[in-house]
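User: Hey, quick favor. My workstation is busy. Could you predict this chain's structure for me?
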Amino acid sequence: MNQMAIHNLNIFLGVSAIILQILVLIVLFLLFIRSKKSSFLKFIEKNFLIIGFLLSLFATLFSLVYSEIIGYTPCHLCWFQRIFLFPQVFLFAIALWDKDRRVIRYSLPLLSVGFIIAIYQNFIYYFASNPFACDLSGVSCSQRLVSEFGGYISIPMLSLTSFIALLVVLLTAHFYKNKNLDL
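Assistant: No problem, here it is.
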């Protein structure tokens, strides 16, 4: 890919991530602050399987675009996050096929571990001063391959946004349904 196409992809993903972060904040506000009846939360609770599938599918595809098409070699923390993200596509696809809400039980632990790794990677990326490689591959966790919107949007931030969004969708499906049994 040429540099302009990569830049356009970065901008598209950056804007998408910021929109997703705003939506996550709205959902958390509605879920924990204004937890009465909300049509937005009801929509997420009702359609969480398709939302989770699409979020995990796009996160996986764009992760693969960066590594396999653009040629950015993932650091070891990216690999660990992939271990916990990539199966989500299959878990949600099977759950969607079977209309099985129990996917929350299987998906939540995987997403939680990936989320913790993503937080750690963001800490290293934004606050650590060690520019050296994280492992023997020579790839650094703090290497600035993507830096959009003043450095706010990066590959670690895109990953963290994906994990947060998936976690919030699952938590909304679990807690909102339990809170509103009369719906």
